[in-house]
Every structure is written in C-alpha cells, then in structure tokens.
Design brief:
10 strands, single chain, about 230 residues, 5-stranded mixed beta sheet, alpha/beta, 8 helices
C-alpha cells in the first residue's frame, strides 16, 4: 500500500506566524503544510493538489502551538466538506483525533497513531446557531499584520481572549476578530474597539488585560495607550 501523504494543518493564526517551524517539522517527516484559516495554502487547496497528483491516502494532523485554536473536530468538519465535494475520486482521508501541541517529531508520531477516516457523515459547515450576526456590544479587532505580529500581537491576542473568558464574556458580549494591518504600524501591537472607535497602541499582554478590565468590562478607555486620529 502506498504511504499516506501527511499534511500538518495549522489550526489558528498563531501557526501561520510559526510557518517556518511547521515547515521544518514537515520536512523531517516528508510532509506538507496547510492552514485552516488566514494562511496559504489553505486546507482545501492542499487537499485538491494532493488529489490531483494522484494521492490515494491523505493523513491530516492538526497543529495548535497556543490556546486559540479550534478543537480537532473542526479539522475533521472542514476536511469532510472538501471530501464530499470532491466526490468519487476523493482519496481516503484520515484525521488525527488529537491536536499536535508542539513541533516535537516524537510527539507528532504519537499523535499520528490515533486517527479516524472520514465517512461523509460529519457535520456540515452551516448551523442554525451561525445564521445571524452575534448580538455583541463590542468588537475587539486585534491587528495580526506583519509588524504587529513581529512585536508580539499573538501573545496580546491570547492574553485578551483568556481575560475575556475568565470574565465570562462570550461572542455575544465581545466579538474578537483577528485582522490584517490596521495601519498605524509604528504603534504596534495595535488593537481597536468598535463601535467605540477607540484605538490602542503598544498593547502588550499586560496592557491588553488592562483594556479588557477597564474598557471592555467597565466602559473606561485606557488613556495611556489610546491613539488619536490624524486631523484632516
């Protein structure tokens, strides 16, 4: 039997930032790399490439190097959508049941040991719960552009999300969105809060936690890190 084509799938924006680390691990195991969100190649594109190249079996391992990734079940759901669309010539696709939490090749081999093939019965990409815009009072936009990422916006995002979780704030309270460049790059890391139209710069994880506590929970913007709009 032909060996399976192994694909390491970055599950969150953090793995996009760590693509060099993922590619180094993939090279050690003769694998390729794809991303579930905000990275290229996306999972659908990589699966299509492998199928077009004649792969008969594909093995997917989700990678989460932080705490912001969706559960492993999402990898299975997204892969199953592609598999059903591909139809009769789709390869056998097996998905690891756990996420790889480090770039350790030994851990990778352990995670690969427990996997299940797609059946076509997996949930689809829609749900009644996702029909409408959430009823959030604030949207927190965290810049993940190149400069902000280089200056630690991944850690900022993680700290703010965890602070919101500890405060019992969900998507119907504060909707967290990772964005591309928000422009005032000299002030990186940058976050902005809507509909308040408040922008912050130099947002370290500690500053992010303060913004959550004082602005998002108590309604008082943090003056020390607030950015002003350029006058026209």
């Amino acid at each position: 039997m032909e060996p399976a084509a192994l694909v390491l799938v970055g599950m969150s924006v953090r793995e996009v930032d760590a693509r060099a680390e993922l590619r180094a691990l993939a090279d050690r195991r003769g694998a390729s790399v794809a991303f579930l969100q905000q990275g290229d190649p996306g999972l659908h594109r990589e699966l299509t490439r492998l199928a077009d190249d004649g792969a008969e079996r594909v093995e997917l391992v989700g990678v989460s190097l932080g705490s912001l990734a969706p559960a492993a079940s999402w990898l299975r759901r997204i892969a199953a959508h592609w598999w059903r669309e591909r139809g009769a010539d789709a390869p056998v696709v097996e998905v690891a049941t756990a996420l790889l939490k480090s770039a350790d090749p030994v851990e990778l081999d352990l995670v690969r040991d427990v996997r299940r093939p797609l059946t076509g019965d997996e949930p689809g990409l829609t749900s009644a719960a996702w029909e409408h815009v959430p009823g959030h009072r604030h949207q927190l936009l965290v810049c993940r552009g190149p400069r902000c990422t280089a200056l630690g916006s991944d850690a900022t995002a993680e700290a703010m999300v965890l602070a919101l979780v500890r405060a019992g704030q969900g998507d119907d309270d504060v909707l967290v969105t990772h964005t591309g460049c928000q422009f005032p790059c000299n002030q990186a890391p940058v976050v902005s809060i809507q509909p308040d139209d408040v922008w912050y710069g130099a947002v370290t994880p500690q500053v992010g936690e303060r913004i959550v506590a004082e602005h998002l929970l108590d309604g008082n913007p943090v003056a020390a890190h607030r950015l002003r709009r350029r006058s026209s």
